[in-house]
Amino acid sequence: MWSLSSITDIVQTWLGSTFNPTIALLLQFVMAGLLVITLFAVLGLVLVFMERKVSAYMQVRIGPNRVGPRGYLQTAADTLKLLMKEGLVPAGADKFLFNLAPYVVMISAMLLMAPIAFAKDFQMWDLNIGVLYVSSVSSIAVIGILMAGWSSNNKYSLLGAMRSGAQIVSYELSAGLSIISIVILVGSLKISDIIASQQDGWWIFKGHIPAIIAFVIFLIAVTAETNRAPFDLAEAESELTAGFHTEYSGMRFALFFLAEYANIFIVCAIGATLFLGGWMPFHIGNLQAFNHIMDYIPSSIWFFGKTFFLIFVIMWFRWTFPRLRIDQLLNLEWKYLLPISMFNVLLVTIMAIMKWHF
Amino acid sequence: MEAKEIIFYLLAALTLGSGLLAVTARKIFRAAIFLLFSLIGIAGFYFWLQYEFIAAVQIVVYVGGIVVLIIFSIFLTQQAGTDLPNPPLRRIIFSALAALFGLIFSWMLISQHPFKPGAESPVAVSVANIGSMMLNVNDTGYALPFELVSILLLAAMVGCIVIAIKSRTETAN
Questions:
Q1: Per the domain annotation, does B115 fall within a domain?
Q2: Are A143 and B81 a contacting pair at CB < 8 A?
């Protein structure tokens, strides 16, 4: 049967037999880079359209419906508009850092694509520290935001960047602890091991209540880490005009915008991998017949289905909750989420030692 | 040249170049950013050596922790937009000499080492190995240093809270 992994195998053997190893490696780098950029462009188009339709649905509107059939070409038109716009640099700005900042945010998002398993055996880099790599590389993005806020030479931008820094650094803790609770159950940081351990059921079902608590905390923490409402204090258009990207326009603004949606996709993909089995089809224990029927649905459809379900949940948050104040935001993390997730890690450890999970 | 050599030289250029710029930059925020790139280059070396765990820890601790801390302290204390004044010539000369002596000292140490591949196979640096080494109480384990470091960290955290806490009488006023 056709699968993504067979295509990559064919390409790999063809490259290996045609070129010498150095050139073959370089060509593989170029191909992987092009695929990631294409995926980002498509994700940007699809997710922005999805966000506008979801928000319209939540607010009992129709949403974009003029450009193209039923408004499907709306985001393509938006992209064209952003490409045509002039990219202004404010007079007092630090030009070098101002231009560099969007690329730092974008590159950290691109690096995070490496360990994600999009389908069975379809993964760029199955390194042995998988989820640790994800949580470490995602911390580079905050530097890009701080850089953007400082180099704009604008008080609103600086305030937005400070808020964003405080928020990301503190919510990284509970996101990390909820990831660790699954790592304890699996006993490995490797993405492929984590997915393989969910062969007989996803962790959210196998891990009882502690896994569900970890899942909820993970969702809250990643919503805060991607700077989305109800935690969008870094942008907060009613207080800070647009926060750290107030001074950005044209293509540089588009890069920030794209990186935000790419980051949403990445955190949802990680959430789907840890708690909902990644590309693993829905299996129940040892019910062989049922499991075989589920295996007929391709693994990539399972992965993207779960990821887009989580993206929908995060969009749902955005359009239903009011924005928090900065003190409420920090109280929520340090006084509620962090103690709960620490206690939860203890519970999970006891459960893993006593083998109480399925 | 093989791909691995090209990657090595690219990483070395990134690390050394941004390290040099971090020292010579006139704006303090730029210096912090160049320091960040230098540290990322070192993390790249660890990845290149396939010590993925140390590479990830390097990024978590230095990029996600220390550089963010440096940037925050610059935001809160410095007039970050203005250029720093030129350091006096005496200071330039002595810091250059210090760097030179450091370089000579480490070069002499490195040149004594033969760098021949050993007969025994390299140790697998899986996370499980690192964990069992750290909590092992045998002769090969590192349980005592590990616990000592954790007590040190705990003391540092308690100290931070004591410094940061507001006393009741102050808030009453």
A1: no
A2: no
Q: Is the pLDDT of residue A26 over 70?
A: yes
What pTM was computed for the model?
Answer: 0.87
Mutate to test the interface with A, among B1, B63, B73 (most CBs of A within 10 A): B63
State the nearest Cα–Cα gap between B29 and chain A, in angstroms.
9
Question: Which of A358 and A97 is assigned the larger pLDDT?
Answer: A97
CA distance A75 to chain B (A): 34
**Domain annotation covers residue A100:** yes
Please give the average per-residue pLDDT across B34-39, as a whole number: 91
Number of domains in chain A: 1
CA distance A237 to A261: 18
Domain of residue B40, CATH code? 1.20.120.1200
- Give the per-residue pLDDT at B168: 66
Choose from B68, B74, B76, B126 for mutation: most chain A CBs within 10 A: B68
Residues in chain A with CB shorter than 8 Å from the CB of B63 are 136, 139-140, 143
Confidence of residue B30 (pLDDT cuts 50, 70, 90): confident
SS3 A242: coil
Exposure letters A312-335 (e unless 16+ CB within 10 A, then b): eebbebbeeeebbeeeebbebbee
Residue A97 distance to chain B (closest CA, Å) = 8
Identify whether A274 is part of a domain. Answer: yes
N-terminal to C-terminal alpha carbon distance within chain B: 71
Is residue B88 a part of any domain in this protein? yes
Q: Count Cβ atoms within 10 A of the Cβ of residue A165 and give its class: 0-12 exposed, 13-18 middle, 19 or more buried.
A: buried
Q: pLDDT class for A300, splitting at 50, 70, 90?
A: confident
Asked whether residue B117 is domain-assigned, the answer is no
- Domain limits for position B148: 3-110+125-172
Q: Which residues pair with A119 in a beta bridge?
A: A122
**Residue numbers of the domain that contains A131:** 86-354
B59 contact residues in A (CB cutoff 8 A)? 136-137, 139-140
Classify residue B105: in a domain, yes or no.
yes
Which residue of chain A is at minimal alpha-carbon distance from B5?
A22
Q: Classify residue A69: in a domain, yes or no.
A: no
pLDDT confidence of residue B150:
92
* Residue B154: predicted pLDDT: 94
